[in-house]
Specification:
This is HEAT repeat domain-containing protein. The protein is mainly α. The chain contains 36 helices and six strands. Strand 2 (46-50), helix 3 (59-72) and strand 3 (77-81) form a beta-alpha-beta unit. The protein is globular and about 95 Å long.
């Protein structure tokens, strides 16, 4: 049974001629139209009419001829494919099958197969939610996969630029209305439309509004093209979709990219406060602009004066300013680091780490000794990201004795990453900590010291004699992993069966950094361990690995585990996994008696962008008996809230006596008013 592919982008009004050309190309034949028709009818061939969306101006005629052909030859199996769902209404008969959208887990598996685990993570970081949503279409996923090797790290705007150019150029609709319009003009049309609809803070135009906007464009630019021809050109590319008498971009992120492209074409000198005063609809536009602009210093200088948080985010997304501009931004972050609000000081620390500039050291040093736990934690993490020791080493060593356990663990990994040898004795002491997270971090730090520095290994070996039995076991385990070479994964997974719980915890921690194909499943088996510290460490690892296959396992731990710390870790893990079921589990656990769990749920609701959870966050903000829960519920409202929440927050702030809660209210109100959304909540 021969299979004949009939590419419909070759169709120009005569289906018989298109079938003839396809039969000849498939079989290496030289048949006439009549002979090709007889071949199809008499051999039981399968005809695949591929690309219905590529008929262009011949759409009505092509659909009619294909329908008539299928009705006339019932003995021939025919398949019609189309990239876009809207064309399914063109036929009277039902759609036999369709390609279902890929789930995020399918996309991750596909990318991991092509790029490896690290490459897949890099791709998902640069693609972000917008392109990953579109990657649920298998055709677009393959296109994005092919582009990834050509994109510098974090330049998401450049990836969008390549993607949209390919989509516009591949419209290739032979004879289609609009195909003769030059590529540059078609891009200008998209830029013009996107900037107009972005200004209006909308995502859709009616047919009448579309005609008016295109008419305005023609008046100002290319009067020689009928507006309908421009519209056909836009929809033929697939980047603009028309349905139900209205039009919208394929995805909101495509609209945001073209708005960024329009700003770049206008020149950044002309960008005024409309785009830079923190209005939320421009945030993603500016991040995409950062990856394509030819004037990064000008962009960052303008943002530093109005929105330093967005200035840092733009640098993270590819903008590379000159030294003078960078110094100006660091000066502004210093001012934030001196704020009376701990939230602002923590934000300054996070931004310093994101910048990765050694010039941040003088700003971070005071924050290492800040009165607030989360500020100190943020400062330590920032120094690890910057990766230069400098004068910060003594202050970092002090944090190994921090009263906040998270800061202790982060400090252990930071001093090892920076190879601060003087810190090794203090790290060894942390191996005896009662906190499993601190012990695991310290063990990993020992591994890093032994692997990266002969001097470090000597110091660690010398301390074996004075260490107690539990410490010695962890040191020996760390040294064995450091020298494992290619067998490191095997040794770590074998350690999961150890009778020493502290070794199991440390192995789980290291598997997060060096996972194998079956690591998540082996770690998930430990969620049923009788030891709470092992359960907690395993759940945390599942979240960090984003192993969505075990969402139910983690969700049930949140609802049923007897240990509050395990339940709190489960809430955090669910938010990290971004699974479809994660929000439901968080909602089901809001009545938990432990403030640690409620605190983790509030943070998780913000991270998962659960806007429907705002009533619960209001309830916690107004009346939870635990101040920490109230603070983070308020912060979550600042992340998720709308103008409707401002009145509630204003009333709450007017009667609140607790200074920390009062400051959090002011911060949340400012975030909502400015549209500022902390990406790393």
């Amino acid at each position: 049974m021969p299979v004949v592919l009939v590419p419909l982008n070759h169709y120009s009004g005569n289906l018989s001629e298109t079938i003839q050309a396809s039969v000849n190309a498939t079989g290496g034949l030289d048949l006439t139209v009549g002979e090709a028709d007889a071949f199809v009818r008499n051999t039981g061939a399968v005809l695949c009419f591929d690309g219905l969306n590529e008929l262009g101006r011949f759409r009505d005629q092509g659909v009619r001829q294909i329908s008539e052909f299928i009705s006339a030859v019932p003995q021939v199996l025919c398949v019609v494919t189309c990239r876009w769902n809207e064309y399914s209404d063109d036929f009277e008969w039902d759609v036999g099958w369709r390609i279902l959208p890929l789930r995020r887990a399918n996309i991750e598996e596909y990318l991991t197969w092509h790029f490896g685990a690290q490459g897949a993570r890099e791709f998902q970081e640069i693609a972000h939610d917008g392109l990953l949503d579109m990657a649920s279409n298998p055709l677009l996923l393959r296109m994005l996969r092919d582009m990834k090797p050509n994109i510098p790290p974090k330049k998401r705007g450049l990836l969008y630029s390549m993607f949209t150019e390919k989509m516009i150029r591949m419209q290739g609709v032979k004879g289609a209305r609009g195909a003769q319009i030059p590529y540059e003009v078609r891009r200008q049309v998209f830029d013009f439309l996107a900037l107009d609809v972005q200004r209006a803070n909308r995502i859709r135009y009616s047919a009448r509004e579309m005609a008016e906007v295109l008419g305005e464009y023609l008046t100002s630019s290319h009067e020689e093209y009928p507006w309908r021809m421009l519209l056909d050109s836009c929809t033929a590319s697939g980047l603009l979709v028309g349905e139900g008498g209205s039009y919208a971009f394929l995805h909101q992120s495509i609209q945001e990219y073209f708005a960024a492209s329009a700003l770049e074409e206008r020149g950044l000198d002309d960008i005024d406060g409309e785009y830079l005063l923190g209005r939320s609809q421009w945030n993603e536009v500016l991040l995409l602009l950062a990856g394509i602009t030819a004037s990064p210093s000008l962009l960052i200088a303008k943002l530093t004066a109005t929105d330093p948080i967005m200035a840092v985010k733009c640098i993270s997304h590819g903008a590379v300013p000159d030294r003078e501009t960078m110094d100006g931004l660091v000066h502004e972050l210093r001012r934030m680091a001196e704020s009376s609000s701990w939230v602002t000081r923590r934000t300054a620390a996070d931004l310093m780490g994101e910048l990765g500039s050694p010039s941040a050291h003088p700003v971070l040093l005071p924050l290492l000794r800040d009165e607030n736990d989360e500020v100190r934690w943020g400062a330590v993490y920032a120094l690890k990201n910057i990766g230069v020791r400098g004068v910060a080493a003594p202050a970092l060593i002090e944090r190994l004795d921090d009263e906040f356990w998270v800061t202790q663990g982060e400090a252990a990994e930071t001093v090892a990453a920076l190879n601060i040898l003087d810190a090794i004795p203090a790290v060894v002491e942390r191996l005896a900590s009662e906190n499993s997270y601190v012990r695991s971090c310290a063990t990993h730090a020992m591994t890093v010291y032994c692997r990266t520095s002969p001097e470090g290994r000597e110091v660690v070996s010398a301390l074996l004699e004075t260490a107690d039995s539990d410490q010695r076991e962890l040191i020996r385990f760390a040294m064995s992993i450091a020298e494992a070479g290619s067998e490191v994964l095997l040794r770590l997974e074998c350690a999961l069966d150890s009778k020493a719980t502290q070794v199991v915890e440390a192995a789980i921690r290291m598997l997060i950094l060096h996972p194998g194909a079956d690591s998540a499943a082996k770690i998930a088996d430990l969620v049923s361990s009788p030891h709470p510290s092992v359960r907690e460490t395993a759940i945390s690892a599942i979240g960090k690995l984003q192993a969505v296959a075990f969402t139910e396992t983690v969700g049930q731990a949140l609802l049923t585990d007897e240990n509050a710390q395990v339940r709190g870790t489960a809430a955090t893990a669910l938010a990290s996994m971004y699974a479809d079921e994660s929000p439901d589990f968080l909602v089901r656990a809001v009545e938990d008696s432990s403030p640690e769990v409620r605190f983790a749920i509030a943070r998780g609701m913000a991270r998962l962008r659960m806007r429907t959870a705002r009533p619960q966050l209001r309830a916690w903000a107004a009346g939870d008996p635990n101040a920490r829960v109230r603070v983070h519920a308020i912060r979550a409202l600042g992340f998720l809230g709308t103008g409707d929440d401002l009145e509630f927050l204003a009333e709450l702030g007017s009667r609140e006596q607790d200074q920390e809660i009062h400051d959090s209210v002011l911060e949340a109100m400012e975030n909502i008013s400015r549209g500022q959304r902390r990406i790393d909540f």
